Amino acid sequence: MKKNIGTVERVIRVIVGIGVLSVAFVGKGTPWTYLGILPLLTGVVGWCPPYAVFGISTCKASDQEK
């Protein structure tokens, strides 16, 4: 599994994921706010399944690992 998400995008995904999930725990969110786990996980792992399907990569060639 090669990384296909660059460092800047990973940081943004983690911040967005935490922000969306925090709404769920404050009590003002709906069950849909638990979808914030998706950007959080893809940001932590560094791999996005739709990017892999479409051949998209936002990371540098030197950052990609097998």
Structure description:
The structure is a single chain. By secondary structure, this protein is mainly alpha-helical. The chain has one domain. It is 53% helix and 0% strand.
Helical content stands at: 40-55%
User: What is the SS-derived class?
Assistant: mainly alpha
Number of domains: 1
Rg calculated over all Cα atoms: 13 Å
- The shape is elongated
**Separation of the first and last Cα atoms:** 6 Å
**Oligomer, anyone?**
single chain
- Give the H and E element order: HHH
- Which residues form runs of ≥5 with pLDDT under 50? none
How much of the residues is beta strand, in percent?
Answer: under 5%
* Overall pLDDT score: 89
Number of helices: 3
Main beta-sheet strand count, sense and barrel state: none
- Total strands: the figure is 0
Task: Write a short abstract of this structure.
The chain contains three helices and no strands. It is mainly α and 66 residues long.
Reconstruct the topology from this structure.
Blueprint: H1 7-26, H2 37-45, H3 49-54
Helix pairs in contact: 1-2
Task: Describe the structure using short key phrases.
66 residues; mainly alpha; 3 helices; 0% strand
